[in-house]
Each structure stands twice: as C-alpha cells, then as structure tokens.
Please model this.
Amino acid sequence: MRSIITSDIKCHREIKRRIAIGKEAFLKSRELLRGNRTLRILIIKTLIWSVVLYGSKTWTLKKEDIKRLEAFEMLIWRRMEKVSWTEHNINEEVLETIGEERSLICTIETRQRKRIRHTLRGESLLKTAIKGKMVGKRSRGRPRQMMLDWMMGEGYKKLKEKAQ
Model:
C-alpha cells in the first residue's frame, strides 16, 4: 500500500482513495460478515478500518473530509446491518442497534496526537520543521490549516508536556 503525496500537500485525494479502497475491502469480505454481530464488528474494525486509516497520521482534515469519513463509517455500519436508505432510519438509531459510537475520526485524532508527541519528544529535522517558520514568501489568500493548528484543540503546550 502506498500513500499519495501531492505537491500542494492537500489530503482530500488520498482520503477519497482510501475510502474507495475501504469499500472494496468491505465488498470482498462479505463472506466473513455472516457471523454474529460482535464478530462482524470486530472484523470491520480490524480489516476495513486498517485499510482506510493507512497513512492517516499525516492527514490534515477539512470539514468536508470529516463529513466524507463519517458518511463512509455510517455506510459500512448500515450495510453490515442491511439497513436500506428507504427505511429512513437515522444514523443514531443504526448506531444504537449495533451498540457502537462513531469512532473513525476519534481514531484518526488519537493517532495524530501520538505521532506529534513522538515527534516533539526527540530532536529531529521534522521537529524543527513543525515548530519553525518557513523561509520565503507566502502565496496569496488565506493560509492553509497545518497539522499543529488543527491539533490545537488539545493545545500545543499540553502536547509538549505529554511528550516530555
């Protein structure tokens, strides 16, 4: 498996590609999803999520990417339970019947926090690049959100303290 790295460092193409690969993996594992519910949930979390989340430690997520990932997660849960869209069940009902919560985005955030803590712990060129400023002229328009900016929900100081 490989990740796509674009020259503009945007992740939406990679996320779309990972979702497509995850759907394909789900369709290929249909025979495995015939057991009881707990076994099916375990298979989905180990086989499908691992395919989709490959390389997610480096993603900078936009709102549309988060929506796309959440929609994919619900698609998988609905297909596992064979809930048709014509039944008009809301997502919370489906999650309640299988006894799960939305966990894909939380998993991505956890993995990214662990990666940042690991990076900030040592002395490396990557740490310098994350903390430092780039030399040169910035392009026009609003600056893109970088990984540390996105991770500021927990707070950079807290991450740094945990890394120490």
